[in-house]
Amino acid sequence: MTKTDTDFDDWYTNLQVHLLDRTGVEYRDVDAARVDFDAGRDVFDVVDQIAAEYES
To answer: Could you give the CA distance from residue 33 to residue 29 in angstroms, rounded to a whole number?
Structure first.
C-alpha cells in the first residue's frame, strides 16, 4: 500500500495497526511517517523496518 493506493490518513492508520499488532507499540511519529509516505514507500516495508528497530 503506497500513496498511489490511498491517502496519508489510511496509510498511517494501517502503519499504526500493524505495528501495534507486531510489537505492542503505539506508534505516534506522524512526521517520520509522512516522510516515508511522501517518498512512496510501501506501508508494509515501513512496518518491517520499524518493527526491526523495536525488536533489536
So the answer is: 6
Backbone angles phi, psi at 35, to 5 degrees: -60, -45
What is this structure's pTM? 0.93
Categorise residue 48: left if φ over 0, alpha if ψ from -120 to 50, beta otherwise: alpha
What value, to the nearest 5°, has the Cα angle with vertex 13 and ends 30 and 8?
65
Within 1-56, where are the H helices?
8-23, 30-38, 43-55
pLDDT digits (tens, 9 = 90+) for 11-53: 999 999 999 999 999 999 999 999 999 999 999 999 999 999 9
The answer to whether 1 and 11 are in contact (CB under 8 A) is: yes
